[in-house]
UniProtKB/TrEMBL annotation:
Entries under Pfam families matching the protein: TusA (PF01206)
InterPro entries: DsrEFH-like, Se_metab_YedF, TusA-like, TusA-like_sf
Highest taxon in the source lineage: Bacteria
Span of domain UPF0033: 5-29
CDD domains cross-referenced by the UniProt entry: SirA_like_N (cd03421)
Gene3D superfamilies: TusA-like domain
Family membership: Belongs to the sulfur carrier protein TusA family.
PANTHER family (alphabetical): SULFUR CARRIER PROTEIN YEDF-RELATED (PTHR33279)
Protein name as catalogued: Selenium metabolism protein YedF
C-alpha cells in the first residue's frame, strides 16, 4: 500500500502532523510525504526516523518526496511526537498572546502553530492565561477554536481577571473562566510540571 500526502505550502508542524496521521492509519506500507521547503523536509524526516521507519528522500523541481516505509520491523513502534511530559500533570502558564519575543506577526503565527501541535498531544491539565495571554481566550482569537477543543477534552482554562479588566476584555471571554492571582499561585506551586510561555 502506498499513500501520498500533499504537504506543499504548509507551515510547521502541519506536515509532521499529516504524516504522523497517515502512518498511524497503517500497520505496514509506504507513505510519501511531499513538502516544498527544507524545514518541513528535516522535521518530517527526523520524525519518521525516530519512529523507526525507513526513509528515502528524492528532490524533484524544488519539491521533496519523502518516502517512508513502515514494515514488520517497525510494527511495534509507537508513533508519537516527543513527549517529555506526563499526561494530566502538565500546567501551561501563557504570559502573552505571541510565542517568543521579536516580530509580533511571527509570534502570532508561532502561537497558532503551538496550539495546533498541542492538539496532537495528550490534553494538559490546565492552561493559565495572564497579561496579554488572556487575549487568546476571547472572541475572535486566532486560537480560540484550538483552546475550546482542549477544554472539551478536559483541559481547564483560567484567565486572569485583573488582566481581562486591564485590557477591557472580561465581557469577551469565550472559553474558560476568570481566575485570580491566589489561584494562579496555588496551581504554580501545586506540584505539577509547569511550562511557561
Amino acid at each position: 500500500m502506498i499513500r501520498e500526502i500533499n504537504n506543499r505550502g504548509l507551515a510547521c508542524p502541519q506536515p509532521v502532523i499529516n504524516t504522523k496521521r497517515a502512518l498511524d492509519e497503517i500497520q505496514q506500507g509506504t507513505v510519501i510525504s511531499v513538502v516544498d521547503n527544507r524545514v518541513a523536509l528535516e522535521n518530517v524526516t527526523r520524525f519518521a526516523e525516530n519512529a523507526g521507519c525507513q526513509v528515502n528522500v528524492e528532490e524533484k523541481n524544488g519539491e521533496f518526496y519523502i518516502t517512508i516505509t513502515k514494515g514488520e520491523a517497525a510494527a511495534g513502534t509507537v508513533l508519537t511526537m516527543p513527549d517529555r511530559c506526563r499526561t494530566g500533570s502538565v500546567v501551561y502558564l501563557i504570559t502573552g498572546n505571541t510565542f517568543g519575543s521579536g516580530a509580533e506577526d511571527l509570534g502570532e503565527v508561532l502561537m497558532v502553530s503551538f496550539f495546533n501541535s498541542l492538539l496532537e498531544k495528550p490534553a494538559p491539565r490546565l492552561i493559565m492565561l495572564v497579561n496579554s495571554g488572556v487575549r487568546l481566550a476571547v472572541q475572535h482569537s486566532r486560537v480560540l477554536d484550538q483552546i475550546t477543543r482542549l477544554a472539551e477534552r478536559g483541559t481547564e482554562v483560567l484567565a486572569c481577571g485583573t488582566c481581562l479588566d486591564y485590557y477591557k476584555l472580561k465581557d469577551q471571554l469565550a472559553v474558560g473562566r476568570v481566575t485570580n492571582m491566589l489561584e494562579i499561585l496555588e496551581n504554580l506551586t501545586g506540584g505539577d510540571q509547569v511550562i511557561t510561555l
